[in-house]
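Hi R.,

As promised on Friday, here is the backbone we talked about, encoded as C-alpha coordinates. Could you run it through your design pipeline when you get a chance and send me back a sequence?
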Protein backbone atom coordinates (compact mmCIF):
# COMPACT_ATOMS: atom_id res chain seq x y z
CA UNK A 1 0.00 0.00 0.00
CA UNK A 2 1.42 3.36 -1.02
CA UNK A 3 1.75 6.09 1.58
CA UNK A 4 3.23 9.58 1.40
CA UNK A 5 6.82 9.90 2.65
CA UNK A 6 9.28 12.71 3.16
CA UNK A 7 10.61 12.07 -0.37
CA UNK A 8 7.09 12.63 -1.73
CA UNK A 9 5.96 15.89 -0.12
CA UNK A 10 2.82 16.20 -2.21
CA UNK A 11 -0.21 14.06 -1.58
CA UNK A 12 -1.85 12.62 -4.68
CA UNK A 13 -5.58 13.37 -4.34
CA UNK A 14 -8.48 12.17 -6.49
CA UNK A 15 -11.88 13.90 -6.24
CA UNK A 16 -14.55 11.47 -7.51
CA UNK A 17 -18.17 12.19 -8.49
CA UNK A 18 -20.71 11.01 -11.06
CA UNK A 19 -20.84 14.23 -13.13
CA UNK A 20 -18.94 17.53 -13.09
CA UNK A 21 -21.85 19.90 -12.91
CA UNK A 22 -25.46 20.52 -12.10
CA UNK A 23 -25.70 21.13 -8.37
CA UNK A 24 -24.16 22.26 -5.13
CA UNK A 25 -22.23 19.06 -4.40
CA UNK A 26 -20.60 19.23 -7.80
CA UNK A 27 -19.71 22.87 -7.15
CA UNK A 28 -18.05 21.92 -3.86
CA UNK A 29 -15.93 19.32 -5.66
CA UNK A 30 -14.86 21.84 -8.28
CA UNK A 31 -14.00 24.44 -5.65
CA UNK A 32 -11.86 21.91 -3.80
CA UNK A 33 -10.10 20.86 -6.99
CA UNK A 34 -9.39 24.50 -7.90
CA UNK A 35 -8.31 25.79 -4.48
CA UNK A 36 -6.35 22.97 -2.85
CA UNK A 37 -2.74 24.08 -2.38
CA UNK A 38 -0.93 22.94 -5.55
CA UNK A 39 2.42 22.94 -3.73
CA UNK A 40 1.11 20.24 -1.37
CA UNK A 41 -1.47 18.31 -3.39
CA UNK A 42 -1.61 16.86 -6.89
CA UNK A 43 -5.32 16.87 -7.73
CA UNK A 44 -7.19 14.77 -10.31
CA UNK A 45 -10.96 14.65 -10.85
CA UNK A 46 -12.74 11.42 -11.77
CA UNK A 47 -16.23 11.73 -13.29
CA UNK A 48 -17.74 8.24 -13.43
CA UNK A 49 -20.53 9.26 -15.80
CA UNK A 50 -20.01 12.49 -17.76
CA UNK A 51 -18.85 16.10 -17.79
CA UNK A 52 -21.30 18.97 -17.38
CA UNK A 53 -21.47 22.72 -16.97
CA UNK A 54 -18.63 23.09 -14.41
CA UNK A 55 -16.10 21.17 -16.51
CA UNK A 56 -14.74 24.30 -18.29
CA UNK A 57 -13.64 25.63 -14.89
CA UNK A 58 -11.54 22.51 -14.33
CA UNK A 59 -10.17 22.56 -17.87
CA UNK A 60 -9.17 26.22 -17.75
CA UNK A 61 -7.32 25.61 -14.46
CA UNK A 62 -5.49 22.61 -15.90
CA UNK A 63 -7.02 20.09 -13.49
CA UNK A 64 -6.85 16.61 -15.10
CA UNK A 65 -10.23 14.92 -15.44
CA UNK A 66 -10.81 11.23 -16.01
CA UNK A 67 -14.26 10.56 -17.53
CA UNK A 68 -15.64 7.00 -17.60
CA UNK A 69 -18.91 7.76 -19.43
CA UNK A 70 -20.75 5.07 -17.46
CA UNK A 71 -24.36 5.09 -18.67
CA UNK A 72 -25.94 2.89 -16.01
CA UNK A 73 -25.19 1.45 -12.59
CA UNK A 74 -24.69 -1.95 -14.23
CA UNK A 75 -21.68 -0.92 -16.31
CA UNK A 76 -19.38 -2.03 -13.52
CA UNK A 77 -16.63 -3.15 -15.90
CA UNK A 78 -15.75 0.51 -16.48
CA UNK A 79 -14.87 0.84 -12.80
CA UNK A 80 -11.82 -1.42 -13.30
CA UNK A 81 -10.21 1.58 -15.00
CA UNK A 82 -10.52 3.51 -11.73
CA UNK A 83 -8.63 0.82 -9.82
CA UNK A 84 -5.86 0.88 -12.41
CA UNK A 85 -5.63 4.66 -12.21
CA UNK A 86 -5.55 4.71 -8.41
CA UNK A 87 -2.67 2.23 -8.39
CA UNK A 88 -0.80 3.80 -11.31
CA UNK A 89 -0.93 7.30 -9.83
CA UNK A 90 -0.12 6.04 -6.31
CA UNK A 91 -3.12 7.94 -4.95
CA UNK A 92 -2.87 8.86 -1.29
CA UNK A 93 -6.35 10.33 -0.75
CA UNK A 94 -9.58 9.35 -2.53
CA UNK A 95 -12.28 11.91 -1.75
CA UNK A 96 -15.68 10.83 -3.08
CA UNK A 97 -18.94 12.81 -3.34
CA UNK A 98 -22.62 11.78 -3.37
CA UNK A 99 -24.13 8.34 -2.97
CA UNK A 100 -23.04 6.66 -6.22
CA UNK A 101 -19.40 7.64 -6.05
CA UNK A 102 -19.30 7.20 -2.27
CA UNK A 103 -20.46 3.61 -2.74
CA UNK A 104 -18.18 2.66 -5.61
CA UNK A 105 -15.27 4.78 -4.45
CA UNK A 106 -15.02 3.10 -1.07
CA UNK A 107 -14.94 -0.35 -2.66
CA UNK A 108 -12.53 0.54 -5.46
CA UNK A 109 -10.28 2.55 -3.16
CA UNK A 110 -9.84 -0.40 -0.82
CA UNK A 111 -9.22 -2.75 -3.76
CA UNK A 112 -6.54 -0.37 -5.04
CA UNK A 113 -4.91 0.01 -1.62
CA UNK A 114 -5.54 3.76 -1.31
CA UNK A 115 -4.38 4.80 2.19
CA UNK A 116 -7.06 7.43 2.92
CA UNK A 117 -10.68 7.29 1.75
CA UNK A 118 -13.10 10.11 2.54
CA UNK A 119 -16.80 9.97 1.65
CA UNK A 120 -18.53 13.35 1.39
CA UNK A 121 -22.26 13.37 2.12
CA UNK A 122 -24.24 16.27 0.65
CA UNK A 123 -27.67 14.73 1.09
CA UNK A 124 -30.87 15.97 2.60
CA UNK A 125 -32.99 12.83 2.14
CA UNK A 126 -32.32 9.14 1.60
CA UNK A 127 -34.25 6.09 0.47
CA UNK A 128 -34.18 3.04 2.70
CA UNK A 129 -31.93 1.11 0.30
CA UNK A 130 -29.38 3.92 0.32
CA UNK A 131 -29.51 4.19 4.11
CA UNK A 132 -28.93 0.45 4.38
CA UNK A 133 -25.99 0.60 1.94
CA UNK A 134 -24.33 3.49 3.79
CA UNK A 135 -24.81 1.66 7.10
CA UNK A 136 -23.08 -1.42 5.68
CA UNK A 137 -20.17 0.46 4.08
CA UNK A 138 -19.21 3.27 6.41
CA UNK A 139 -16.29 1.31 7.91
CA UNK A 140 -14.58 1.36 4.51
CA UNK A 141 -14.18 5.13 4.97
CA UNK A 142 -11.51 6.76 7.09
CA UNK A 143 -13.86 9.70 7.55
CA UNK A 144 -17.31 10.81 6.38
CA UNK A 145 -17.86 14.52 5.79
CA UNK A 146 -21.24 16.18 6.30
CA UNK A 147 -22.16 19.77 5.57
CA UNK A 148 -23.94 20.78 8.78
CA UNK A 149 -24.59 19.75 12.36
CA UNK A 150 -28.16 18.95 11.35
CA UNK A 151 -26.88 16.53 8.70
CA UNK A 152 -24.55 14.92 11.23
CA UNK A 153 -27.44 14.21 13.57
CA UNK A 154 -29.51 12.75 10.71
CA UNK A 155 -26.67 10.46 9.61
CA UNK A 156 -26.03 9.28 13.17
CA UNK A 157 -29.69 8.56 13.89
CA UNK A 158 -30.81 7.09 10.55
CA UNK A 159 -27.67 5.18 9.61
CA UNK A 160 -26.27 4.36 13.02
CA UNK A 161 -22.83 5.73 12.15
CA UNK A 162 -20.70 6.61 15.21
CA UNK A 163 -19.83 10.26 15.75
CA UNK A 164 -16.07 9.69 15.50
CA UNK A 165 -16.45 8.74 11.83
CA UNK A 166 -18.12 12.08 11.04
CA UNK A 167 -16.69 15.56 10.52
CA UNK A 168 -18.73 18.68 9.79
CA UNK A 169 -17.24 20.73 6.96
CA UNK A 170 -19.45 23.67 6.04
CA UNK A 171 -19.68 24.54 2.36
CA UNK A 172 -17.92 27.72 1.30
CA UNK A 173 -18.05 30.23 -1.55
CA UNK A 174 -15.48 32.27 -3.41
CA UNK A 175 -16.43 35.81 -2.38
CA UNK A 176 -14.50 37.41 -5.25
CA UNK A 177 -16.90 35.89 -7.79
CA UNK A 178 -19.94 37.52 -6.19
CA UNK A 179 -18.71 41.02 -5.39
CA UNK A 180 -19.38 42.75 -8.71
CA UNK A 181 -22.90 43.47 -9.99
CA UNK A 182 -21.92 45.42 -13.10
CA UNK A 183 -23.86 43.28 -15.62
CA UNK A 184 -27.24 43.93 -13.98
CA UNK A 185 -28.79 45.80 -16.90
CA UNK A 186 -27.37 43.42 -19.53
CA UNK A 187 -28.60 40.31 -17.72
CA UNK A 188 -32.08 41.75 -17.30
CA UNK A 189 -32.18 42.59 -20.99
CA UNK A 190 -31.17 39.02 -21.88
CA UNK A 191 -33.92 37.65 -19.65
CA UNK A 192 -36.51 40.08 -21.00
CA UNK A 193 -36.94 41.73 -17.61
CA UNK A 194 -37.55 45.48 -17.30
CA UNK A 195 -34.93 47.54 -15.42
CA UNK A 196 -37.47 48.56 -12.76
CA UNK A 197 -39.02 45.09 -12.25
CA UNK A 198 -38.84 43.46 -8.82
CA UNK A 199 -36.80 40.42 -9.82
CA UNK A 200 -36.92 37.39 -7.51
CA UNK A 201 -34.57 34.49 -8.18
CA UNK A 202 -34.13 30.85 -7.20
CA UNK A 203 -31.23 28.54 -8.06
CA UNK A 204 -31.34 24.76 -7.70
CA UNK A 205 -32.16 21.42 -9.23
CA UNK A 206 -35.81 21.01 -10.14
CA UNK A 207 -36.20 17.63 -8.45
CA UNK A 208 -38.57 16.01 -6.00
CA UNK A 209 -35.83 15.45 -3.41
CA UNK A 210 -35.75 19.21 -2.88
CA UNK A 211 -39.35 20.21 -3.58
CA UNK A 212 -40.97 23.56 -2.91
CA UNK A 213 -40.60 25.11 -6.37
CA UNK A 214 -44.35 24.93 -6.98
CA UNK A 215 -44.92 26.80 -3.72
CA UNK A 216 -42.64 29.62 -4.86
CA UNK A 217 -44.47 29.93 -8.17
CA UNK A 218 -47.82 30.18 -6.38
CA UNK A 219 -46.41 32.79 -3.98
CA UNK A 220 -45.14 34.93 -6.85
CA UNK A 221 -48.61 34.76 -8.36
CA UNK A 222 -49.96 36.29 -5.13
CA UNK A 223 -47.21 38.91 -4.97
CA UNK A 224 -48.08 39.98 -8.51
CA UNK A 225 -51.55 41.02 -7.34
CA UNK A 226 -50.03 43.95 -5.44
CA UNK A 227 -46.74 44.24 -7.36
CA UNK A 228 -47.55 43.75 -11.07
CA UNK A 229 -43.92 44.30 -12.13
CA UNK A 230 -42.63 41.29 -10.15
CA UNK A 231 -40.74 38.59 -12.07
CA UNK A 232 -39.31 35.23 -11.01
CA UNK A 233 -36.27 33.62 -12.63
CA UNK A 234 -35.70 29.94 -11.86
CA UNK A 235 -32.14 28.82 -12.60
CA UNK A 236 -31.62 25.08 -12.89
CA UNK A 237 -33.10 22.03 -14.51
CA UNK A 238 -34.50 18.64 -13.63
CA UNK A 239 -37.41 16.24 -14.11
CA UNK A 240 -39.94 18.58 -12.46
CA UNK A 241 -39.41 21.35 -15.00
CA UNK A 242 -42.21 20.34 -17.46
CA UNK A 243 -44.73 20.17 -14.63
CA UNK A 244 -43.60 23.51 -13.21
CA UNK A 245 -43.88 25.12 -16.63
CA UNK A 246 -47.40 23.69 -16.94
CA UNK A 247 -48.31 25.09 -13.50
CA UNK A 248 -46.94 28.47 -14.56
CA UNK A 249 -49.22 28.48 -17.60
CA UNK A 250 -52.24 27.32 -15.60
CA UNK A 251 -51.78 30.20 -13.14
CA UNK A 252 -51.46 32.72 -15.96
CA UNK A 253 -47.84 33.48 -15.05
CA UNK A 254 -46.24 32.85 -18.43
CA UNK A 255 -43.84 35.75 -18.89
CA UNK A 256 -43.76 36.36 -15.16
CA UNK A 257 -41.83 33.16 -14.41
CA UNK A 258 -38.68 32.57 -16.45
CA UNK A 259 -36.92 29.18 -16.63
CA UNK A 260 -33.26 29.40 -17.67
CA UNK A 261 -32.15 25.77 -17.42
CA UNK A 262 -28.62 24.96 -16.25
CA UNK A 263 -26.27 27.95 -16.24
CA UNK A 264 -22.55 28.24 -15.56
CA UNK A 265 -22.77 32.03 -14.93
CA UNK A 266 -24.74 31.99 -11.66
CA UNK A 267 -22.74 34.87 -10.08
CA UNK A 268 -23.62 37.06 -13.05
CA UNK A 269 -27.32 36.14 -12.82
CA UNK A 270 -27.41 36.83 -9.09
CA UNK A 271 -26.16 40.33 -9.75
CA UNK A 272 -29.42 41.10 -11.59
CA UNK A 273 -31.72 40.00 -8.75
CA UNK A 274 -33.46 41.98 -6.02
CA UNK A 275 -34.38 39.05 -3.75
CA UNK A 276 -33.28 35.41 -3.55
CA UNK A 277 -35.59 32.60 -2.41
CA UNK A 278 -34.80 29.00 -1.57
CA UNK A 279 -38.15 27.18 -1.12
CA UNK A 280 -36.85 23.62 -0.55
CA UNK A 281 -38.66 21.11 1.63
CA UNK A 282 -35.37 19.28 2.33
CA UNK A 283 -31.77 20.47 2.32
CA UNK A 284 -28.40 19.78 3.92
CA UNK A 285 -26.50 23.05 3.52
CA UNK A 286 -27.26 24.49 0.06
CA UNK A 287 -24.45 26.27 -1.75
CA UNK A 288 -27.12 28.42 -3.43
CA UNK A 289 -27.97 30.10 -0.11
CA UNK A 290 -24.32 30.94 0.57
CA UNK A 291 -23.86 32.29 -2.96
CA UNK A 292 -26.93 34.52 -2.68
CA UNK A 293 -25.70 35.90 0.64
CA UNK A 294 -22.21 36.40 -0.82
CA UNK A 295 -23.81 38.45 -3.60
CA UNK A 296 -25.39 40.73 -0.98
CA UNK A 297 -28.95 39.67 -1.77
CA UNK A 298 -31.75 39.69 0.81
CA UNK A 299 -32.67 36.08 1.38
CA UNK A 300 -35.83 34.10 2.07
CA UNK A 301 -35.23 30.40 2.84
CA UNK A 302 -37.09 27.53 4.41
CA UNK A 303 -36.23 26.46 7.94
CA UNK A 304 -34.88 23.02 7.02
CA UNK A 305 -31.63 21.09 7.43
CA UNK A 306 -28.55 23.18 8.07
CA UNK A 307 -30.00 26.46 6.79
CA UNK A 308 -30.70 27.84 10.31
CA UNK A 309 -27.00 27.27 11.07
CA UNK A 310 -26.20 29.89 8.41
CA UNK A 311 -29.19 32.24 8.39
CA UNK A 312 -30.30 34.15 11.47
CA UNK A 313 -33.98 34.91 11.01
CA UNK A 314 -34.60 38.64 10.75
CA UNK A 315 -30.89 39.50 10.88
CA UNK A 316 -29.17 37.91 7.88
CA UNK A 317 -32.32 36.77 6.08
CA UNK A 318 -35.83 35.47 6.65
CA UNK A 319 -36.68 31.86 7.49
CA UNK A 320 -40.14 30.41 6.80
CA UNK A 321 -41.66 26.95 7.32
CA UNK A 322 -41.44 24.72 4.22
CA UNK A 323 -44.60 24.76 2.13
CA UNK A 324 -46.05 27.79 3.93
CA UNK A 325 -47.42 29.97 1.13
CA UNK A 326 -48.75 32.64 3.50
CA UNK A 327 -45.47 33.07 5.39
CA UNK A 328 -43.38 33.26 2.25
CA UNK A 329 -45.83 35.69 0.67
CA UNK A 330 -45.65 37.93 3.73
CA UNK A 331 -41.86 38.26 3.78
CA UNK A 332 -41.58 38.65 0.00
CA UNK A 333 -44.08 41.51 0.08
CA UNK A 334 -42.04 43.14 2.88
CA UNK A 335 -38.78 42.84 0.96
CA UNK A 336 -40.13 44.00 -2.39
CA UNK A 337 -41.82 46.96 -0.71
CA UNK A 338 -39.00 48.02 1.63
CA UNK A 339 -35.69 48.62 -0.19
CA UNK A 340 -33.98 49.75 3.02
CA UNK A 341 -34.83 46.49 4.79
CA UNK A 342 -33.71 44.49 1.77
CA UNK A 343 -30.38 46.32 1.64
CA UNK A 344 -29.79 45.89 5.37
CA UNK A 345 -30.42 42.13 5.29
CA UNK A 346 -28.30 41.73 2.17
CA UNK A 347 -25.33 43.54 3.69
CA UNK A 348 -25.58 41.58 6.95
CA UNK A 349 -25.78 38.26 5.12
CA UNK A 350 -22.79 39.12 2.96
CA UNK A 351 -20.69 40.03 6.00
CA UNK A 352 -21.71 36.79 7.75
CA UNK A 353 -20.63 34.62 4.82
CA UNK A 354 -17.38 36.55 4.48
CA UNK A 355 -16.62 35.84 8.14
CA UNK A 356 -17.60 32.18 8.32
CA UNK A 357 -18.34 30.46 5.00
CA UNK A 358 -15.67 31.24 2.41
CA UNK A 359 -14.20 28.65 0.07
CA UNK A 360 -10.80 29.30 1.64
CA UNK A 361 -12.10 28.30 5.07
CA UNK A 362 -13.66 25.14 3.63
CA UNK A 363 -10.47 24.20 1.78
CA UNK A 364 -8.19 24.77 4.78
CA UNK A 365 -10.37 22.49 6.90
CA UNK A 366 -10.26 19.76 4.24
CA UNK A 367 -6.50 20.14 3.87
CA UNK A 368 -6.00 19.69 7.61
CA UNK A 369 -8.09 16.54 7.47
CA UNK A 370 -6.10 15.14 4.54
CA UNK A 371 -2.83 15.74 6.39
CA UNK A 372 -4.04 14.33 9.70
CA UNK A 373 -5.42 11.14 8.18
CA UNK A 374 -2.39 10.61 5.93
CA UNK A 375 0.02 11.03 8.85
CA UNK A 376 -2.05 8.63 10.93
CA UNK A 377 -1.74 6.01 8.18
CA UNK A 378 2.02 6.55 8.02
CA UNK A 379 2.37 6.06 11.77
CA UNK A 380 0.19 2.95 11.66
CA UNK A 381 2.24 1.47 8.83
CA UNK A 382 5.50 2.18 10.65
CA UNK A 383 4.09 0.54 13.78
CA UNK A 384 3.23 -2.59 11.81
CA UNK A 385 6.71 -2.67 10.29
CA UNK A 386 8.37 -2.37 13.71
CA UNK A 387 6.14 -5.12 15.07
CA UNK A 388 6.99 -7.45 12.19
CA UNK A 389 10.72 -6.74 12.56
CA UNK A 390 10.53 -7.66 16.23
CA UNK A 391 8.98 -11.05 15.52
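Update: got your reply. Pasting your designed sequence below so it's all in one thread:
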Amino acid sequence: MQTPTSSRPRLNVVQMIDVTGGGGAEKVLVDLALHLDRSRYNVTVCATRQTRNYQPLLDSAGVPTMVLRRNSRWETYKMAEVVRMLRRERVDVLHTHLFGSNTWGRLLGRLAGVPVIIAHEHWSSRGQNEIWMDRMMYRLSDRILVTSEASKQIVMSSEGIPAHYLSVVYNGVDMDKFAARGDRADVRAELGVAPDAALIGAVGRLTADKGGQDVLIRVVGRVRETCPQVRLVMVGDGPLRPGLEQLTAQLGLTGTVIFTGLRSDVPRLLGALDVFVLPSEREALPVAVLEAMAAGLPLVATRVGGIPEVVEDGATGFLVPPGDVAAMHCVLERLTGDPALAARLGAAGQAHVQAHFTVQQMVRQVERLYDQLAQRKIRAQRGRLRASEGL
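One thing I noticed while checking it: Confidence is low (pLDDT under 50) at residues 1-6.

Thanks again,
M.
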